[in-house]
């Protein structure tokens, strides 16, 4: 494989991780941990858009850390949604799209080049991109009109330039980590910066080949990140000040591209993530490193985050033929151990994400199965199907359907069933600039949001329109 080809194929530009499926919501009722105006620039093209009130009502956001919102308010506050499982609670959506795709409500431009997805809360939409040499965060209203833009330090201009991680919303604050390690907290309403720390400098981490790609995890009073440095592998910062609450001991290897998730097993709360060579479980309240489990792949790319269920089973997967495994966490008081249940080469997810639904895993393979969309049975790893669909890419789920987006802007609608992968409808997303379509799609508030490069497209996917 030529250097150009593999560099293009391995760049991890969306912090492609999967949340803790059906895991517990971050806890906000435990005691606080003790710890030592921008210019609007994006233009909007609208095919007469419906009013924002058609899909949302003005309401106060839920309490910080909550995984639900007032009825009718579009709420997708972090990468892969309220619970981090990439399962939208939306109902009443189209089961088949018109020829050419659902109605395009509007196109927002001027976001800057990037692979970040979108988050929604407080009647605003957030994303980030490279603009004027900076990592730029944009807040838009529900009609796609820019409300504010701020920078989070210098842009990543190395191999496959662009932003990776997606901003995380927590109440009246927004948190963002740039590819260069700038972790910043802003006012969700105005974009005013509250605090900033560079996690690579602070914890003596070395940036990875295609730059940091995680989206930040807010766990109660803390913001969790993974610098993979000489001082810490995983870190929890006070979300109000940016000061360290706990640090997990270093592992001697760099971090990787996955987003951390929180899970609870037999009463023990854990942060689960991947570094460049292994799966990690860290005590969520103390930072004690509980377990590591080797999971190596070419180019040290572990991009898809672990998926965990309550009983302690954890699914991990990586690309380049490295494949997948189901692990079992065993808890003994405040300690834990891990053992493998099964392993499989059938799905080696690159960075498009995997969804767990009703006992089955759905996602695109990378080099296995000719890059097909694959379904595995959770409990056994048995392959249910491997079919081409729209081609390798990312996905989300809503109202019984998989929304599959290829790396070449092909959007497909597929019934979520282990019986087969039939593309019921598909359409071509317009080009928003250069590069592949690696930003994960989002279904929220009756709309399908698709990001490509500098532009965001909003489609009406409600039934009966």
Task: Characterize this entry briefly.
This protein is mostly beta strands and 465 residues long. It is built from 2 helices and 34 strands. A hairpin with a 2-residue loop joins strand 8 (168-170) and strand 9.
Q: What is the beta-strand fraction?
A: 35-45%
Number of domains: 1
Question: How far from one another are the termini?
Answer: 47 Å
Q: How many beta-strand runs?
A: 34
What would the average pLDDT be, to the nearest integer? 88
What do you see in this structure?
This protein is an all-beta fold and 465 residues long. It has helices at residues 3-10, 199-202; strands at residues 44-46, 87-88, 103-108, 119-121, 124-131, 134-141, 146-154, 168-170, 173-177, 182-187, 193-198, 217-219, 222-225, 235-238, 244-247, 261-265, 268-274, 278-283, 289-294, 307-308, 313-318, 323-332, 335-344, 354-357, 360-364, 373-377, 383-387, 393-398, 401-406, 410-415, 423-428, 442-444, 447-452, 455-460. The protein has one domain: 7 Propeller (Methylamine Dehydrogenase, Chain H), CATH 2.130.10.10. A five-stranded antiparallel beta sheet has the order 1-3-34-33-32, with no helix packed on it. A five-stranded mixed beta sheet has the order 2-28-29-30-31, with no helix packed on it. Strands 4-5-6-7 form a four-stranded antiparallel beta sheet, with no helix packed on it. It is globular.
Any descriptors?
5-stranded antiparallel β-sheet, 465 residues, 2 helices, disordered N terminus, Methylamine Dehydrogenase, Chain H, mainly beta, 5-stranded mixed β-sheet
């Amino acid at each position: 494989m030529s250097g150009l080809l593999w560099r293009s194929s391995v760049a991890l530009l969306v912090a492609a991780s999967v949340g803790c499926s059906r895991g517990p919501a971050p806890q906000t009722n435990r005691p606080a941990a003790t710890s030592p105006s921008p210019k609007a620039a994006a233009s909007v093209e609208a095919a007469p858009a419906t009013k924002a009130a058609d899909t949302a009502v003005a309401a106060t956001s839920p309490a910080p850390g909550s995984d639900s919102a007032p009825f009718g308010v579009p709420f997708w506050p972090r990468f892969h949604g309220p619970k981090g499982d990439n399962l939208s609670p939306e109902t009443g959506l189209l089961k088949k799209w018109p020829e050419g795709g659902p109605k395009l409500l509007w196109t927002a431009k001027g976001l800057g080049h990037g692979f970040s997805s979108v988050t929604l809360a407080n009647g605003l939409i957030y994303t980030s991109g490279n603009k004027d040499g900076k990592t730029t965060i944009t807040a838009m209203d529900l009609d796609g009109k820019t409300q504010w833009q701020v920078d989070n330090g210098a842009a990543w201009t190395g191999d496959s330039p662009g932003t990776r991680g997606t901003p995380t919303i927590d109440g009246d604050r927004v948190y963002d980590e740039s590819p260069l390690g700038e972790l910043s907290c802003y006012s969700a309403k105005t974009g005013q910066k509250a605090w900033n720390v560079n996690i690579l400098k602070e914890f003596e981490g070395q940036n990875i080949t295609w730059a940091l790609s995680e989206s930040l995890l807010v766990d109660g009073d803390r913001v969790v990140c993974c610098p993979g440095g000489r001082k810490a592998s995983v870190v929890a910062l006070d979300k109000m000040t940016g000061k360290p609450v706990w640090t997990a001991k270093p592992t001697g290897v760099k971090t990787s591209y996955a987003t951390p998730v929180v899970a609870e097993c037999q009463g023990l709360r854990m942060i689960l993530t991947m570094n460049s060579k292994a799966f990690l479980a860290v005590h969520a309240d103390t930072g004690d490193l509980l377990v590591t489990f080797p999971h190596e792949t070419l180019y040290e790319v572990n991009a898809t985050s672990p998926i965990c269920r309550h009983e302690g089973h954890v699914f991990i997967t990586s690309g380049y033929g490295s494949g997948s495994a189901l692990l079992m966490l065993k808890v003994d008081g405040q300690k834990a151990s891990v053992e493998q249940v099964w392993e499989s080469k059938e799905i080696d997810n690159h960075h498009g994400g995997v969804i767990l639904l009703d006992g089955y895993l759905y996602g695109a393979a990378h080099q296995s199965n000719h890059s097909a969309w694959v379904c595995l049975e959770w409990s056994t790893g048995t392959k249910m199907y491997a079919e081409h669909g729209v081609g390798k890419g990312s996905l989300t789920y809503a109202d019984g359907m998989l929304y599959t987006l290829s790396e070449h802007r092909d959007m497909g609608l597929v019934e979520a069933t282990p019986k087969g992968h039939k593309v019921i409808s598909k359409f071509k997303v317009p080009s928003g600039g250069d590069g592949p379509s690696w930003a994960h799609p989002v279904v929220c508030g009756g709309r399908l949001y698709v990001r490509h490069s500098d532009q965001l497209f909003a489609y009406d996917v409600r039934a009966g329109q």
